């Protein structure tokens, strides 16, 4: 797994897709699902879904954007 992450850090195109497209989209989908669960009566699971995976996807997007900027500055 560490090998794949180290290899991923060398490709700015992959980091662009992850940071600007995939992770924000997943965060939005998970947040909407959590919101609908809260409205549907499953409050505990909806709140957990709103906070835990959504925040993981948001911070992962920040990580990918930061690493992409560092990689482009090196080149």
Short description:
By secondary structure, the chain is mostly helical. The chain contains three helices and no strands. The protein has one domain.
Descriptive labels:
mainly alpha, single chain, 75 residues
Q: What structural class should be given to the helix and strand makeup?
A: mainly alpha
State which percent range the strand residues make up.
Answer: under 5%
Give the end-to-end Cα distance, rounded to a whole number of Å.
25 Å
Order of helices and strands: HHH
Range of helix content:
over 70%
Compute the number of helices. Answer: 3
Low-confidence stretches: none
Shape: elongated
Q: Number of DSSP strands?
A: 0
Q: So what's the oligomer here?
A: single chain
Largest sheet: none
Rg, alpha carbons: 15 Å
Taken together, the total number of domains comes to: 1
Mean pLDDT: 90
Give a verbal description of the structure:
It is a single chain. Helix 2 packs antiparallel against helix 3 (43-74). The mean pLDDT is 90. By secondary structure, this protein is mostly helical. The protein has helices at residues 2-8, 12-40, 43-74. The protein has one domain.
